[in-house]
Specification:
With about 270 residues, the protein is α/β, with parallel strands linked by helices. Helix content is about 40%, strand content about 15%. The chain has one domain: Alpha/Beta hydrolase fold, catalytic domain (Rossmann fold, 3-Layer(aba) Sandwich).
């Protein structure tokens, strides 16, 4: 199993940043340096994204020799968690954005001893609408993204970027910055993008939230249309040791649109 690409800054308690669907670690931008003033910040490119090549989990042993329980299934999310758990065996703080938040939740479920604290940004336990879950994307909409991905995945990613910033303060400027950064580490692999959409379509972690006891900060843009504020409110109220930090004027990427407020909220949580 090949190591994922990770960039590290600073010293102190380890903090891992996990990006969202179709993105890469470079999207975190200037917040990395700010957080590295107090923490050892690891920024990862997920499998098939950025500078990380295609990854496959074949066993429960990492290159570092750490033996790990095999995933309960060979689902894409469990394979990603297995890689992260192998590469970061020591306890750390995990901060996940969007899809990265779902990965963080699954990691805390499978290997709770590795997670000291959780930060969930623009996240949801269930991305797609269910009969008893309406604060989510319609299944048909996500299926449309999956279908268009095979036809023109560059255009599909650009459409997804537009949804992420819709309604945000400085929407046009933010969209331009996202587009400039999108392929700055190369184009993500189609198979990795498809696997990410599978995770968004299939993952429903509502039933396990009560068992995730780590201190958790849920950060939400109050104008987020991809993962509505109600989903973040549900996370904060259902996780046993969580609280919500809403960011006014922000949509799906609050750390980019409102970096100072985001950094303040995160640092306050890490110093508690």
């Amino acid at each position: 199993m090949t190591d994922l690409h990770v960039e590290t800054q600073g010293s102190g308690a380890p903090l891992l940043l996990i990006h969202g669907w179709g993105m890469h670690g470079g999207m975190w931008g200037g917040v990395v340096a700010a957080l590295a003033q107090d923490n050892c910040v690891h920024v990862v490119d997920l499998p098939g994204h950025g500078f990380s090549g295609k990854q496959e989990v074949e066993s429960g042993k990492s290159e570092r020799g750490t033996h790990l329980p095999l995933p309960t299934s060979h689902s894409p999310i469990d394979q990603i968690v297995a890689q992260l758990a192998a590469q970061f065996p020591e306890p750390l703080i995990v901060c996940g954005w969007s899809l990265g938040g779902q990965i963080a939740l699954r990691w805390a479920t499978l290997h709770p001893q590795q997670i000291q604290r959780l930060v969930l940004i623009s996240s949801t336990p269930c991305f797609v609408q269910q009969e008893d879950w309406t604060c989510a994307m319609a299944a048909d909409t996500l299926a449309g993204f999956a279908a268009s991905l095979t036809e023109n995945y560059t255009l599909t990613l650009r459409r997804f970027l537009a949804l992420q910033v819709r309604g945000s303060d400085n929407e046009r400027e933010l969209l331009a910055n996202l587009r400039n950064a999108l392929f700055s580490r190369g184009e993500p692999e189609l198979a990795a993008l498809q696997a990410g959409l599978d995770i968004l379509r299939d993952s429903d972690q509502r039933a396990v939230l009560a068992d995730i006891v780590q201190p958790t900060l849920v950060i939400a843009g109050e104008r987020d249309t991809l993962t509505p504020l109600a989903a973040s409110e549900y996370l904060a109220s259902t996780l046993p040791n969580a609280r919500l930090a809403g960011i006014k004027g922000a949509a799906h990427a609050p750390f980019m649109s409102h970096p100072e407020h985001f950094i303040e909220q995160l640092k306050n949580f890490l110093h508690e």
